UniProtKB/TrEMBL annotation:
GO molecular function, one term: cobalamin binding
GO biological process: methylation
Domain Radical SAM core as annotated: residue spans: 182-396
Alphabetized NCBIfam families for the sequence: HpnR_B12_rSAM (TIGR04367)
A GO CC term attached to the entry: cytosol
The protein, known as: Hopanoid C-3 methylase
Residue ranges annotated for the B12-binding domain, each copy included: 8-141
Keywords for this protein: Iron, Iron-sulfur, Metal-binding, Methyltransferase, S-adenosyl-L-methionine, Transferase
Gene3D superfamilies membership: Aldolase class I, Cobalamin-binding domain
Highest taxon above the source species: Bacteria
Swiss-Prot/TrEMBL cofactor(s): [4Fe-4S] cluster
């Protein structure tokens, strides 16, 4: 069969700080190709909808799959599906991805028949079974694991048997030089592990994967990395190097192969402090940038988001990263209950530290525990506002003032790390990018004011709403694990970590019993 895979357009923050290659779609594409299907891939982060329609008209795929990893992309995907179905009624249209898994039934309802099914869970095993079913009889899709359609719901989604089975089909992307994160321009993405064993209340990584944690073998990682042409590499793991021996094994294999890259990764402060030798090795290999989700600068905030790590440990982790010469980006979560004083406290703190500080908005998402336990009334169910940059809970300040304070706080990042300030400190890097024809990093330096504007954010609330997600259930103190998970939780056997690391994880989570 001919399969076209499509990634939707950019979100608010991706217009400035990063634009990552659609690694998940590349892995699904590889699985489909290995099964003998013809595959094309289109990324609307870097192309226009007209390019999608032109490719569909020219290539005439039998099936089109949309990736939906972010709720804010739902209206775009539904509208594209409707337009596609109107032009080519016989094409089979489906949606998969992280967020789609949590709102599958709603997607089908919004699409009014334009979307034939939604695939919940991991895409690599599902795509082969789905295409096989389509070749036999469209009605057979109802029996495919993870598939939700108007014909019914198939068995629970299945995990890919081994993460070593698929490698990204990077050759299918038409504009690889358009991907970057910060100064890493261009930048590829790579996966070392999948899943997260923690249970932060605001996050849906652990609910999607059933608190599992699986590893790609070092040999496969290095072979994949050796084929990457970009000088920058973003490691997409939710928490990098939880299992120290795995991080060391990959690093040592990279050193033996003599692979030279610059790396950016995400991790936790307590993981950094626990596995210092891993991060020391990776610094020597080219680790330049690290993202740590601190989320709050007080103990009350840490309890709210169920980050069971003390504030002193977080600050110790920042000090240690500085000692290694690693540039750190921090995420803080602004709660809609904040008043002017709390915003001012955060601003003063941000100015006192050298790290890059990003401020997002506390947003209960379907799939998170907070979606089911948050007692405050959701004030908007417009998918487009679920991008961690808009307030969907009631704000203590009048909404215009909340956005003014939020953007005023985010402006610190702009003053310290963007514009002329950034260009002065990275002039030689920027010049090198421009000499190679790379403009992503330089262009981002002056985009902040055009994207982060309180008036624009407020205006987003006034836009007509065509698609609304279903309201959350009545709040309860505890969430039912059976209702949270996409992939079934299998406990300790699903986590590829040793007993000492399992004990560390257990002592650094609040323990929901899930």
């Amino acid at each position: 069969m001919k399969l076209l895979l499509v990634h939707p357009g950019p979100l608010m923050y991706t217009k400035i700080y990063l634009r990552l290659e659609p690694l998940g779609l590349e892995l699904v594409a590889d699985a489909a190709r290995r099964a003998g299907h013809q595959v094309a891939l289109l990324d609307l982060q870097v192309e226009q909808p007209e390019a999608y329609l032109a490719l569909a008209a020219e290539w005439r795929p039998d099936a089109i799959g949309f990736s939906c990893n972010y709720l804010a992309n739902v209206p775009e995907i539904v509208d594209l599906a409707k337009e596609t179905k109107a032009r080519w009624p016989d094409v089979f249209l489906f949606v998969g991805g992280h967020s789609a898994s949590f709102v599958a039934e709603e997607l089908l309802e919004h699409a009014e028949g334009a979307i034939d099914c939604v695939v919940k869970g991991e895409g690599e095993p599902a795509i082969v079974a789905l295409l096989d079913a389509l070749q036999e009889d469209r009605a057979a899709i109802a029996s495919v694991a993870g598939v939700v359609s108007h014909l019914g719901q198939g068995p629970p989604p299945q995990f890919l048997h081994s993460l070593d089975e698929c490698r990204p089909a990077r050759d299918l992307l038409r504009h690889r030089r358009r991907y970057f994160i910060g100064v890493l321009d261009p930048c590829a993405s790579i996966e070392f592990s999948r899943g997260c064993p923690w249970d932060c209340s605001f996050c849906s990584a652990w609910t999607f994967y059933g608190r599992s944690y699986r590893l790609v073998s070092p040999e496969v990682v290095v072979e994949d990395l050796a084929r990457v042409r970009e000088p920058g590499v973003f490691i997409v793991d939710d928490v990098a190097f939880i299992q120290a021996k795995h991080g060391l094994a990959i690093g040592e294999a990279i050193a033996r192969r003599g692979i030279k890259k610059q790396y950016y990764l995400e991790t936790r402060g307590d993981v950094l402090l626990r596995n210092k030798e891993v991060f020391q090795l990776w610094k020597r290999l080219g680790l330049e940038y690290m993202f740590i989700g601190i989320e709050a600068i007080d103990e009350e905030g840490l309890r709210l988001y169920r980050k069971r790590i003390s504030q002193s440990k977080n600050f110790e982790a920042l000090e240690y990263a500085r000692s290694l010469g690693i540039t750190v980006a921090i995420n803080l979560i602004a709660d809609p209950d904040w008043d002017r004083r709390q915003f001012e406290v955060i601003r003063r703190w941000c100015l006192e530290i050298p790290e890059i500080v990003n401020v997002s908005v506390n947003t209960p998402y379907p799939g998170t525990e907070s979606w089911r336990t948050e007692s405050r009334r959701i004030v908007s169910r417009d998918y487009r506002l679920y991008d961690i940059q808009h307030a969907v809970l009631p704000t203590k300040l009048p909404l215009p003032e909340f956005y003014e304070e939020l953007v005023k706080t985010q402006q610190i990042l702009n003053r310290k790390h963007l514009g002329w300030a950034a260009l002065k400190s990275t002039a030689w890097i920027a010049a090198g990018h421009l000499l190679r024809g790379q403009t992503n990093f330089v262009k981002m330096l002056w985009k902040f004011d055009s994207v982060y504007d309180p008036k624009l954010q407020l205006a987003d609330h006034a836009r007509p709403v065509r698609y609304q997600m279903a309201p959350p259930p009545d709040p309860s103190p505890h969430a039912n694990g059976a209702l949270l998970y996409i992939h079934r939780a299998k406990g300790r056997q699903s986590r590829a970590i040793d007993d000492d690391t399992e004990a560390f994880v257990d002592t650094s989570r609040t323990g929901t019993g899930l």
